[in-house]
């Protein structure tokens, strides 16, 4: 691995290790968006194995969000339903190689990410 790549890798590892829970969640949303964009592009380029692997990464992030829900709050049930829907659409889109299903989920993730980012900024101000 070139020296610059090693330095970046070490920086990225440190950023994750030192990040707050809010920042880690934002990183996961960003990662999901990056992977789903790459998956859509791979489908359009007929690189189906690559697309499959990228969609699975998004599915893993969605499942991670579900596993961290705190069900003592009512809203967790609503998020769980939303994450379940997103996961099912990802699986369907992956099986049918349907970029439209992935685009639908991408918009949902983008909205959730933007909302999360706004909430994190507001929380830091108080």
| Largest sheet properties | none
Number of helices: 5
Number of strands: 0
Helix content: over 70%
Class by helix and strand content?
mainly alpha
Summarize the helix and strand pattern as letters.
Answer: HHHHH
What would you say the CATH architecture is? Answer: Up-down Bundle
Distance between termini?
43 Å
CATH superfamily: Flagellar protein FliS
List the helices and strands and how they pair.
Blueprint: H1 3-18, H2 21-44, H3 48-67, H4 75-96, H5 99-125
Helix pairs in contact: 2-3, 2-5, 3-4, 4-5
Structural summary, described in words:
The protein has one domain: Four Helix Bundle (Hemerythrin (Met), subunit A) (Up-down Bundle). It has five helices and no strands. It is globular. The termini are far apart. By secondary structure, it is mainly α. Helix 4 packs antiparallel against helix 5. Helices cover 87% and strands 0% of the residues.
Give the structure's gist in a few sentences:
The protein has 126 residues and is an all-alpha fold.
Tags for this model:
126 residues, mainly alpha, Four Helix Bundle (Hemerythrin (Met), subunit A), 5 helices
């Amino acid at each position: 691995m070139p020296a610059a790549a090693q330095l970046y890798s070490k920086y990225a590892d440190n950023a994750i290790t030192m990040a707050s829970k809010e920042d880690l969640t934002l990183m996961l949303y960003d990662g999901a968006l990056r992977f789903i964009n790459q998956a859509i592009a791979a489908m359009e380029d007929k690189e189906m194995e690559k697309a499959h692997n990228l969609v699975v990464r998004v599915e893993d992030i969605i499942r991670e969000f579900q596993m961290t829900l705190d069900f003592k709050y009512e809203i967790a049930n609503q998020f769980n339903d939303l994450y379940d829907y997103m996961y099912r659409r990802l699986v369907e889109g992956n099986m049918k190689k349907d970029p439209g299903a992935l685009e639908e989920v991408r918009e949902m993730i983008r909205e959730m990410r933007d909302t999360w980012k706004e909430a994190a900024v507001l929380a830091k101000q108080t």
